[in-house]
Amino acid sequence: FFLADRKQVERDVLLETFWPGVPVGRQVSSLYTAVHAIRRTLGKDIVAIEGSLYGVNPAEAVRYDVGEFEHAAAVAAAMPPGDPRRFFALTEAVNAYTGPFLPEFLTEWALENRRSLEHHFLQLLTLHAEEAMVHGDPLRAVESIRLALKIEPLRDDLNLRYIELLGRLQRRSEAVGHYRRYTQMLADELGLDPPDAVREAYGRLID
Fold first, then answer.
1. Contact residues for 199 (Cβ-Cβ < 8 A; gap 6+)
2. What DSSP string describes 71-139?
3. Are strands 53-56 and 47-50 parallel, antiparallel or unpaired?
4. Residues 6 or more apart whose Cβ sits within 8 Å of residue 55
5. Which of 100, 147, 153, 158 gets the most CB atoms within 10 Å of its CB?
6. Please, are residues 89 and 76 in contact by the beta-carbon 8 Å criterion?
7. Distance CA 155, CA 29 (A)
8. Using CA atoms, how far apart are residues 32 and 130, in angstroms rounded to an integer?
9. Is the CA virtual torsion 37, 40, 43, 49 positive or negative?
10. The dihedral of CA 93, 99, 100, 102: what is its sign?
11. Is 162 exposed, middle or buried (0-12, 13-18, 19+ CB in 10 A)?
12. Do residues 8 and 49 lie in contact, with contact meaning Cβ atoms separated by under 8 Å?
């Protein structure tokens, strides 16, 4: 996965990323063992080595969900707001996200990737909600913001957007229940009250 992300990597970067603080001889031996294991599992030509550069052989057909997600996101980003194709492309990008990156790994490079991809996914969800509203589909907008809130339940702008969308759909009781849960989480976890914008939106809803 590290090689698939970075296309080509210097050997020294691999050694220090996966075996930091280990004597050089053991680092090299561990890298040799790791490459041998990858080749045994995925094919002898899967790892390409050019001098001190290691990478996934571009001639090999490798399907990588992160690559597919990033490609779909790039296609969507290239289209202007309001373009019907942008809404379709954002839908494709959102659907290409398959969940947290390597959740079983706690190494720094995996954590950095996880945070970056999650942040990108959140951006796409908010853009998708905006495009859904442009094209008169508030139900899709609600679903996108709901997915975003599963990742960042205390983010004020997402909660504001969600309450406003539920109000627009006349789902008042659902909005009231969400607001109460949100305010309770804010108080319990951060000792804070909702910001003025959220309180005002809620006030307009229940008036």
1. 193
2. HHHHHHHTSPTT-HHHHHHHHHHHHH--SSSSTT--SHHHHHHHHHHHHHHHHHHHHHHHHHHHTT-HH
3. antiparallel
4. 3, 6, 7, 8, 9, 47, 48
5. 158
6. yes
7. 46
8. 49
9. positive
10. negative
11. buried
12. no
pLDDT class for 164, splitting at 50, 70, 90? very high
- As given in the structure block, the two tokens for residue 148 are 């975003």
* pLDDT tens digits for range 35-44: 999 999 999 9
d(CA 94, CA 124): 7
Mean pLDDT of 185-202: 94
Asked if 172 contacts 205 with a C-beta cutoff of 8 angstroms, the reply is yes
pLDDT band at 128 (very low <50, low <70, confident <90, very high): very high
Report the SS3 class of residue 52: coil
**How many CA atoms are closer than 13 Å to the CA of 131, on its beta-carbon side?**
23
Distance (Å, whole) CA 67 – CA 83: 24
